[in-house]
Amino acid sequence: MTTKRRNHGRSKPPGSRGRTTPVHCFNCGRLAPKDKAVRRFVVRNMLDQASARDVAENSTVYNQGFPLPKLYMKQRFCIACAIHSRTVRGRPYGDRKIRYTKRVAFRPAKK
Predict the structure, then answer these.
(1) Which of 48, 55, 62, 77 is 20 to 30 A removed from 3 (C-alpha atoms)?
(2) For the chain, what is the largest distance between any 2 Cα atoms, rounded to a whole number of angstroms?
(3) What's the pTM value of the predicted model, to 2 decimals?
């Protein structure tokens, strides 16, 4: 039988384990397998620019060049919400096989 994707829509290596823990979708709350959910790591400022400027002007700490804290979120979406919010898009048949991964080259520690 033909397969649509070589990993069957999961990032689980073949022969490794039968089941992965489900995670909740960030948008709708649906349970999706952890290896199938679309993951995005988002780093945002806690305040918008106008509010950050007001806080920096009235604060004794943040007006001395100390940065405002940031908000770090790992968002996991189910496939339906990821497509609906255009986090990922459906691709043509030939382009589905292309994997976009960011691999960092190994650099040994300097002595």
Answers:
(1) 77
(2) 67
(3) 0.72
